[in-house]
Design brief:
By secondary structure, the chain is an alpha/beta fold. It contains 13 helices and 13 strands. The chain has 2 domains: about 240 residues, 3-Layer(aba) Sandwich (Aspartate Aminotransferase, domain 2), CATH 3.40.640.10; about 130 residues, Aspartate Aminotransferase, domain 1 (Alpha-Beta Complex), CATH 3.90.1150.10. The strands form 4 sheets. The protein has a 7-stranded mixed beta sheet with strand order 1-9-8-5-4-2-3, with helices on both faces.
């Protein structure tokens, strides 16, 4: 069993992927070829944003977004301590300081109720993360930002294709970012990412920043980076986009099957009724995680932990919040466990995963539920 089955996905779309790759090899425009503009238009149409700018990775998208907003030394950016390190890393790379705010117990996303207390005169932006494929409460976050004149950058690296109150992830705030890392719901075969905005000036700035701050050939009007997404990777994303909506339906089918088998036996990361998730990961909460993983591994079931060490406890980041405690984040980091997930996970395999997990966790189930309920 694969944790994410990219081989079956390729087998299903082999012809369209190969044809897209061959087209790039035939025209030879490996940088900024026609597939780049085609993908940008398709993705802008998909999200409803006025502009899409493809870039070299999801991390590069965050860096470029911050640069376009003029965030830099002396500024603070509010974000979550519970995400992949790239979220805080991008803030530090532009010279600003991440300020962490704890998460919601039910969704593991940034808690909007805690943001206002973290705002200072140095705050310039908020970066909520759409963790595990589900957007946070963006209306509440945008409302706080608007009261204080702050920009909001959605880190949607895990959530392209998800919706919040009928609107697409990526088009929920000032700027949206996403990633096309191979394991993402819409992935390429290397690194890639995209930025979304409906602000014409920001779009122009981000397009220049991704090509070394160049407004026209060899005329550099701002500081930039080498941040383009390769034509080949755009071609692969275009090929996968053909089956993307079908694959999202299958991911939701798998998630619904897991929900039915595991609830109420185990605490789950919940999907709120006013939004949808693309289930980049399907995550449960367990006690004795190392032992549970060992039992599942012996049963041929791969698992992952997203994420075992919060940002404020990372060796390179601990100085940012010395002595700070984020109790919900720390409780979740000790318990989260991600199960095999993807559009090609067969129903018998999902049953095998769920049944094996329940057997592995049975002695600690009651303790686990009680521990999580204490966080409410």
């Amino acid at each position: 069993m694969e944790f994410i089955d990219l081989k079956s996905q390729y087998d299903t779309s082999r012809n369209v992927i190969n044809n897209r790759i061959q087209a790039v090899l035939d025209h030879g425009q490996y940088i900024m070829g026609p597939e780049v503009a085609e993908l940008e238009q398709r993705l802008a149409d998909y999200t409803g944003a006025r502009h899409c700018i493809t870039v070299a990775s999801g991390t590069e998208a965050l860096v470029i977004a911050l640069m376009a907003l003029g965030v830099g030394p002396g500024n603070e950016v509010i974000t979550t301590p519970f995400s992949f390190i790239a979220t805080a890393e991008a803030i530090l790379l532009v010279g600003a300081r991440p300020v962490f705010v704890d998460i919601e117990r039910t969704t593991c996303n940034l808690d909007p109720r805690l943001i206002e207390d973290a705002i200072t005169p140095a705050t310039r932006a908020i970066i909520p993360v759409s963790l595990y494929g589900q957007p946070p409460d963006m209306d509440a976050i945008n409302s706080v930002a608007a009261r204080h004149g702050l920009a909001v950058i959605e880190d949607g690296a895990q959530s392209f294709g998800a919706t919040y109150r009928g609107r697409q992830s990526g088009n929920l705030s000032t700027i949206g970012c996403t990633s096309f890392f191979p394991s993402k719901p819409l992935g390429c075969y290397g690194d890639g990412g995209a930025l979304f905005t409906s602000d014409d000036l920001l779009a122009g700035a981000m397009r220049e920043i991704r090509v070394h701050g160049q407004s026209r050939r060899y005329v550099h009007t701002r500081l930039g980076v080498g941040g383009r997404m390769d034509t080949l990777q755009c071609a692969i994303a275009l090929a996968k986009l053909e089956r993307f909506d079908w694959e999202l339906k299958q991911r939701r089918r798998v998630a619904a099957a897991y929900d039915e088998m595991l609830y109420p036996h185990l605490p789950l990361v919940a999907c709120r009724s006013d939004r949808t998730s693309v289930h980049a990961q399907y995550t449960v909460l367990v006690e004795g995680r190392d032992q549970v993983r060992a039992v599942l591994d012996a049963a041929g079931i791969p698992t992952a932990v997203h994420y075992p060490l919060p940002m404020h406890q990372q060796p390179a980041y601990a100085h940012l919040a010395p002595g700070a405690r984020y109790p919900v984040t720390e409780a979740m980091a000790a318990r989260v466990l991600s199960l095999p997930m993807g559009p090609y996970l067969a129903a018998p395999d999902a049953r095998h995963v769920a049944q094996s997990l329940l057997r592995a966790t049975k002695p600690a189930q009651s303790r686990g539920v009680e521990a999580v309920e204490l966080l409410e």
